[in-house]
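Possible regression after last week's pipeline update?

I re-ran a chain I had predicted before the update to compare outputs. Posting the input and the new output here so someone can diff against the archived version. Not blocking, just want to make sure nothing changed silently.
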Amino acid sequence: MTGQMSRRTVLKGLGTAIALPLFEGMLPGVATAAAVATRKAAPKRMAFLYVPNGVHMQDWTPKAEGTGFALPATLEPLKPFQQDFMVLSGLTADKARPNGDGPGDHARALSAFLTGRQARKTHGADIRAGISVDQIAAEKVAQETRFRSLELGCEPGRQAGNCDSGYSCAYSCNISWRTESTPNASEINPRLVFERLFSNGVKGEAATARAKRERYRLSVLDLVMEDANNLRHRLGATDQKKMDEYLTAVRELEMRLVRDERVETGVSRKGRSETGVSERGKEMGVGERGRALKPAGVPTDYGEHVRLMADMMALAFQGDLTRVATFVIANEGSNRSYGFLKVPEGHHDLSHHGGDKAKHAKLQKINHFHASQLAYLLGKLKGIKEGDGTLLDNCMIVYGSGIGDGNAHNHDELPILLAGKGNGTLKPGRHVRYKRNTPLTNLYVAMLDLFGAPVKSFGDSNGKLEGLA
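New output (post-update):
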């Protein structure tokens, strides 16, 4: 590397590009004013996480308002982060209501969640919802990051067909909409997300690099080690540590992907020769030279699948690969079974509980599990130092559902949580209750304003949500 080094640096190799975190000191001996400027320049990130079928609201909503509220059962996994989020009660997604369109609450719930628009009732090619808030934010910062936005999911979805009372399947699985008729499909394969984040995007070259890694049992880091070593001596001690920690996180994530792929394909490391494997490859335990793994698959362990995607999001934010992300933890109307929670019934079936207490208890287990996955992401973000604070401090993360109670299919009193401090613009640690039927989109108007992408209105908003800062 020659010339002046950017605070954002990319390590390059064959078909590979690994963006590094924001450096503070940059070079040994640089005046502390540079570090101060860097901290002030830390960008805001915005993310939206969605869970389907509503929640058991009795175990979600805190009884007290303001600070110091007791966490209800569903939110107990978030106890270590109570000062890092606020619960927002009273918000409504009016465009998820029928409004004359009849059944189809699940399709409308997801399609309206980030758009605030009524989806056209069709299961043909003429789908229409609205531009989603994540894409408004992404447009503002698209020129500053490698990826405009990141769309993640955990369940496959169809982009055509009738999935909910005359509504296209596209409405039930897509939360992000680039235009009113163009959804951004979520990627559910962790390996493909990893390859996208850490390849250089050059047609053919990335595929060649992956083939080489698989053939010789190399890590993606093996391909950038020369660049990394050249950079290391140019960094101060703090930034050396930061780079090493980031590369370690990338390596550990890659190791988990390899382990999961071995489980999926039935490949065992036991008794394998390690002859001819790179040192990085040995650390990864990836087997002998020349035997390629089968293509990556989606993990059968749902919790691991969610956590892998959360880690991808965290690394993408840390390396400033993108500043905007969405994550559909399960598609709307999902009837996934949670046997590992001793809940063999389908989630959607249980959500139609009819007041049955046994079903309530099982729903609470599912909701608790989802909250624990959010806690994992918040812990990951809070564990990453950035400037004088953490990466979580520079995030605005919405978590929730477009349905309140799954049995009632109501779209008011939604379960909505806002985490992070938005680079000092939010005041978390509170339960804030708003007037009934306050548009959810009022929250997005406020968030866009804090993000530096102000709008006069969005979707069905009627103002800017107050009381966040």
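Follow-up from reviewer: compared with the archived run. The chain has two domains: 10-39+194-284, 45-184+299-451. Marking as no regression found.
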